[in-house]
Amino acid sequence: MKMRKWMMVTAVAAMATSLAACGGNNNTNGGNAAATNAPSESTAPAENNGGENTGAETAQITPEDGASLVVWESKEERAFTDEIAKEFTEKYNVPVKVEELSPVEQVTKLSQDGPSGLAADVILIPHDNLGRAASAQLLLPNDVFEQETVKNNTEASIIGASYDGMLYGYPRAAETYALYYNKSLVTEAPKSFDDVIAFGKTFTDKPKNKYGIMWEVGNMYFDYPFIASNGGYIFGDNGTNKDDIGINTDGAIQGLAEFKKLKEILPINSGDINPDIKRSLFNSGDVAMDINGPWELAGYKTALGDNLGLAPLPTIGGKTAISFAGFKIFAVNAYTQYPNAAKLYAEFASGKDAQLKLNKLVGSIPTNLEALEDPQIKDDPYVSAFAEQAKNSQPMPSIPEMGNVWSPVNAALPEIWDKGVDPKTAMDKAAQQIKDLNNGASQ
């Protein structure tokens, strides 16, 4: 079955509905060692042998003789993969080696190492990276398990796992971000960023390394609400029109003016904020609020216990804050020596039980419909808060040109934050860079 392109326009509503129902460390060793000794023909992508398989036939797929797998996983979610890989090996007698690599780096790494047989067999990527990988023929379609995947997961996640009418991915988790806060410091979640500034003026003490709020101010992913909440966007036509760039529209510039104001209560440069620093300060009570995603939930609950609060993002300039929505998806390397084993792993590690395990270990939001109805999810106030924010989230564009957006915007944001550059000047420059890249200019 091929997904219809027109379904893309339903992504925002589907994301909201599906989530509401629930209530970068680089290892360069790379790849499956067996592939390095493969004959020359193994450098071609693996054949798509399962395209006509249906759900009734999936029980017949078995790992290749002597199969072993390499999977790439983020440092933050390594605990899940270690457990799920062990379970997979016990069930299928296929050894699995886990290598840490940031999901945002995996498509680039796959494009470099896939043809030579040095890349992982199964990769984990943000859905907005899918178009780049699929258009470069780096991935095998999700064919053998297509019917189950479509039936078992939310519509929005299936859209995110598809490109140009073809299902490639195996959805594993839905992601947006919200406002974590320490209840012992902030008695009630702020309703607006004006409230955040008012609180920060009473709490922030730079000499003592104490801040009212902290987030990755140089990262477009977390700054998107300041672009989008007043009408800005990345690409027009629901993220599909590369020629309609909206990061420097009047609405985007209005939102970024609000972004710039927050420097008063977070008077440090963007380069001095990273996930490890922010996590440590929030856990110790030196940061009162943090804009972050579900991957931090388990650790924050351990550190703060009942003092941990979670709420939708505060309003920006009187407008509801619109966050980025994304999906993490498994995909199978087109150059794998073991396509059957790799597809089995991707399906096994993204099913209901696996998604519930991932939620338990790292606080992720499932895409599996049965998992979303499980009491573990429905009765969780934190997941419910993410679901509330998801109602006002927009899926990241998944066209290949999305890869041209990150560097220019992630260069513009520090210019605004660190150097006080006028947002219009900085974003005009970034928009032109994106346009040039979309039209074939090299980075």
TrEMBL record:
<feature type="region of interest" description="Disordered">
    <location>
        <begin position="32"/>
        <end position="63"/>
    </location>
</feature>
<dbReference type="InterPro" id="IPR006059">
    <property type="entry name" value="SBP"/>
</dbReference>
<comment type="similarity">
    <text>Belongs to the bacterial solute-binding protein 1 family.</text>
</comment>
<keyword id="KW-0732">Signal</keyword>
<keyword id="KW-0449">Lipoprotein</keyword>
<dbReference type="Pfam" id="PF13416">
    <property type="entry name" value="SBP_bac_8"/>
</dbReference>
<keyword id="KW-0472">Membrane</keyword>
<dbReference type="InterPro" id="IPR006060">
    <property type="entry name" value="Maltose/Cyclodextrin-bd"/>
</dbReference>
<keyword id="KW-1003">Cell membrane</keyword>
<keyword id="KW-0813">Transport</keyword>
<protein>
    <recommendedName>
        <fullName>Maltodextrin-binding protein</fullName>
    </recommendedName>
</protein>
<keyword id="KW-0762">Sugar transport</keyword>
<feature type="signal peptide">
    <location>
        <begin position="1"/>
        <end position="23"/>
    </location>
</feature>
